Amino acid sequence: MRYGALEAGGTKMVCAVCDGKGGISDRFTTPTADPKETLRILYDYFADKQIDCLGIACFGPIDLHPDSPTYGHITSTPKLRWQNVDIVGNFRALGVPVGFDTDVNGSVLGETTFGIGRGVKNCVYLTIGTGFGAGVLSEGRLLHGMLHPEGGHVLLPMSPKDPMERGICPFHPNCAEGLTSGPALKARWGVNAKELGDRDEVWDLEAFYLAEALIDYTMVLSPEMFILGGGVMHQREKLLPKIRAHYRELMNGYIKTKQTADLDHYIVAESLNDNQGLLGAGEIGRLAYEAAQR
Ligand code: ADP
Ligand code: ZN
């Protein structure tokens, strides 16, 4: 079987053919430029790859309701040229089953199929990068609900130590994305997140906000593992110990499980070297293929 995989991101599109065992071949990347032109390049890439199905893990917000007239479209993205663009429809002429989900749902599926979360049925994957997204696997299924989780926009009590008066999200003064994304770090400290070095106050505040968000997800979703990725998590050595310490303090002994007793294995970094989204996209394709056989 050849599983086509497309990780559709706001800055670049990554395509590959997956083998369903964690292997990736024919990787190809193209910028997320003009939608018509970009979609044509992507179609042409997959057209001669003899794929049995295609899985797409896409930036959003996106429409995931199969009976909606705009199923498979990107909807209200801030990337204006990509608003209301029909992604799934672009690949219909390939004649293979096409699966479609969020980029972060792709990542949670990739990590729970091939990575550190293998076998975990309830898992939250977070990406903290240009934005902040949360993918959720609940009882072994990707969570969609009304739309899909928008975990970056949970509202967090602000720290009195924060030099910013409000976060940078245009919609919310104090959501997780507006307080913790790479651009939020730059707005707060005046330099690119990459160049913030070892400044303790920087990573302590970042970890505090991330721990607040994790506490909220714990209480509502009861995950058995948190997996953290994205550009900001390249600082994992500095961040993870601090996130765990703040998490323990904020939890204040309330939930007592084997996971909360062992935070080193409960709150972890991505394990697939930034291939989790692509491998997850391949799995999204496999699930679409299986559904089409029923
Ligand atoms: P995207 O979210 O666009 O897919 P990334 O996950 O790579 O891309 O996130 C990019 C963001 O991560 C940028 O805002 C950048 O400042 C931040 N970032 C990238 N590398 C690092 C690093 N080593 N340390 C801290 N922040 C970083
Ligand atoms: Zn917000």
What do these coordinates show?
The protein is of the alpha/beta class and 294 residues long. The protein is 35% helix and 19% strand. The protein contains nine helices and ten strands. The strands form two sheets. The chain has a five-stranded mixed beta sheet with strand order 3-2-1-4-5. A five-stranded mixed beta sheet has the order 8-7-6-9-10, sandwiched between helices. Strand 6 and strand 7 form a beta hairpin. Helix 3 crosses helix 9 and helix 6 packs across helix 7. The protein starts with a strand and ends with a helix. The mean pLDDT is 97. Zinc ion (ZN) binds next to helix 4.
Largest sheet descriptor: 5 strands, mixed
Mean pLDDT: 97
Distance between the termini: 17 Å
Number of helices: 9
Tally of extended strands? 10
The topology string of helices and strands comes to EEEHEHEHEEEHHHEHHEH
Quaternary state, please? single chain
What percentage of amino acids are in beta strands? 15-25%
Shape: globular
Rg from Cα: 19 Å
User: Which regions are unreliable across 5 or more consecutive residues at pLDDT < 50?
Assistant: none
Unique bound compounds:
adenosine-5'-diphosphate, zinc ion
Question: Topology, please?
Answer:
Elements lengths: L2 E6 L3 E7 L5 E8 L3 H13 L5 E6 L28 H4 L7 E5 H12 L8 E6 L3 E7 L2 E2 L33 H5 L1 H8 L10 H22 L3 E5 L6 H16 L11 H4 E3 L6 H18 L1
Bound molecules: adenosine-5'-diphosphate and zinc ion.
